[in-house]
Amino acid sequence: MQRMVRAALAAGLSWQVALFLPPQLAEYAYYAPLGAVIAVHPTIADSASAAWRSILAILLGFALAVGVYEVTRVVPNALTIALIVGLAIVVEQWRMLREQASWVSFAAVLMLTVGTSDPAEYAVRYAGLTLLGAVIGVLVTTALFPPLQLTTAVNRIARTRETLAAHLESMAAALRSGQLPAPHEWENRGEALDVALEQMRRAETQVERARRANPRAHRWQGAAGSIRDQSRALDRVAVLVDDLTTLVVEFQPHRRGLDRVDDGTGWVLADALDGLAGVVRLPFHDAADQPDDRDAAIAAAVAASNRLTALLRNSEIADDEGFFALGAVTVGMHRSLQTLEAHVRFPAAA
């Protein structure tokens, strides 16, 4: 809705401004709204980027069309058009043009069909008025204080937390039941987590882009920084969880002669995974001076991880592969807790 309002306002303003130009330009005022629409994006950085890249692509297309047309006058028009389009597609591979690359071939064909009688004049009209509209589009985007996309990013992070925690709990339940799915089945289960992670990364990137040249950025610097830290921490934990999931599913250390404490390795692993899931779900403390739910989750996770460490230290190595897999899982658990800054704030009295 906000982009719609900005685009509509920018298009109307650019049209009106173009009408005040000299008659030879005002006659083509409809090019200005085109530039305005091109330049209106959710962030100021994206608006400015789209504006100058589009104009550059248009000018490249014009120059290519004029150059090829002049040297192929004796060639049939069909061959001239084919050559221009082919070369334009090659130019569009220039990475600097990004999403605006397709304007090269469009502008080249446009120049060839309607602008060859006076290329310079047509380029000034089309590119000049489009640039005018693009500038107005960027100014409107800046003046209307584009949002920092914080709400979307917060929701994406919350969804990723829930999906990651559910993944850990699902693996813990499988360990307790003794029925771990095959590796390819775990890969299918991980698709939802992959989607959530990708959406979270995109949302974080959008927040970072929205902060550039945004007059509101300083007011929400703390919130934006928190989003960045949470997103990257969850990303790192997800990588660790993916590794330990692979180790448990493929090597199954809980079934390889390592049961030496209480209910067995499977239950110890399950408790550790459930503990980590609890910390993933609770990213913040409610109070600074007294224990809260996050403290309880951290205490449970640390206790379960320590129990897993003790199991590893006290195990009689019956299977090297299983032992090393269990060791890697244990390290992954502790690294995950460190990444989530899961520190015990109020140690129990001795």
From TrEMBL:
It is a multi-pass membrane protein. Keywords: Cell membrane, Membrane, Transmembrane, Transmembrane helix. Pfam families: ArAE_1. One of its GO terms (cellular component) is plasma membrane. This is Aromatic acid exporter family member 1. The lineage of its organism: Bacteria, Bacillati, Actinomycetota, Actinomycetes, Geodermatophilales. The chain crosses the membrane at residues 50-69, 74-94, 129-148. The keyword Transmembrane applies. The keyword tRNA processing does not apply. It is found in: Cell membrane. It comes from Modestobacter caceresii. InterPro entries: ArAE_1.
